[in-house]
Design brief:
This protein has helices at 2-27, 39-49, 55-84, 88-116, 119-143, 155-183, 213-226, and strands spanning 30-31, 34-35, 194-195, 202-207, 230-237, 250-258. By secondary structure, the chain is of the alpha+beta class. The chain folds into two domains: 2-184, no CATH class; 194-258, no CATH class. The strands form two sheets. A four-stranded antiparallel sheet has the order 3-4-6-5, covered by helices on one side. Strands 1-2 form a two-stranded antiparallel ribbon. α1 (2-27) packs parallel to α6 and α3 (55-84) packs antiparallel against α6 (155-183).
Length: 260
């Protein structure tokens, strides 16, 4: 009973792990009851730092990463369903494929972390790589299934898995390219300041994750053009612990006074 509970927990963990990762790719930012990470912007910044400014390159890389995650999600889901149906041998087959896709995914991510110089992400992906190996070893040690008795996927199972994978990959790809059309302009587009409450001398600008110095300079110019009778006294940012509403974004305030 204990070994079955542990094996069930391993399968459930990886299912929800990849489910939330795929959802994060589909949403691409924050919304009600979800504060994810803007993977679209993150990938585009990574490739731009390496001299590849074209959003298409980043989008293709993100689609490949999302596809691998979808493959892992589908096979861990299949493994859990087979396990619940008391088909241990088939569950092992699905689990093995899910583990393979997970290792491939974390290996590619680790290579990317080296290329783009992100040591924190490298540490995270390396840890998950080893956790994948450990969970696979524990699962098989608890199950003790004879290798010769391990079932292979039937033709129907392969067709169903492939269809589901293609559907999820196409949906994720459509979301990525849709983001590219609507949000990539935020790299250079000026942002309009919003007055804070009833204070006529305090304005707020929600800076996008993709934005750089061009957006900042353009936003200040836009503010000055809109409020020629105001003089900027101070510009300051919100402390990081208070940035709760928008993930991966910078919020800065403009303090003004009327020109005399």
């Amino acid at each position: 009973m204990t070994s079955s509970l542990i094996r069930f927990s391993i399968l459930a963990y990886w299912l929800f792990f990849w489910l939330f990762n795929v959802i994060d790719k589909l949403i691409g930012g924050s919304m009600f009851l979800w504060v994810g990470r803007d993977r679209f912007a993150q990938f585009q910044k990574f490739f731009a730092s390496a001299g590849l400014d074209s959003p298409v390159v980043a989008d293709i890389a993100l689609i490949i990463a999302a596809s691998l995650e979808v493959f892992a999600l589908v096979f861990f889901t299949g493994a859990l369903l087979k396990f619940i149906a008391n088909k241990a041998n088939e569950a092992s087959s699905w689990f093995l494929v899910g583990v393979v896709f997970t290792l491939i995914t974390f290996t590619l991510f680790s290579i990317g972390d080296h290329i783009f110089g992100d040591r924190f992400e490298l540490l995270e992906h390396t840890l998950f790589w080893f956790i994948t190996i450990i969970s696979f070893v524990i699962y098989n040690q608890l199950e003790k299934v004879d290798e010769e008795a391990v079932a292979v996927l039937s033709k129907g199972q392969k067709i169903s898995a492939t269809a589901l994978i293609l559907l999820l990959v196409m949906t994720t790809s459509a979301s990525i390219f849709s983001f590219n059309e609507t949000d990539f302009i935020k790299r250079t587009e000026a942002i309009e300041a919003v007055q804070v409450g009833d204070n006529e001398n305090l304005f707020k600008v929600s800076f996008p994750f993709l934005g750089g110095s061009t957006v900042f300079e353009g936003s200040i110019k836009l503010f000055q053009d809109k409020f020629p009778y105001k003089r900027i006294v101070q510009i300051y940012t919100v402390p990081k612990p208070l940035k709760l509403k928008k993930a991966d974004s910078l919020i800065f305030y403009i303090v003004t006074e009327d020109k005399k």
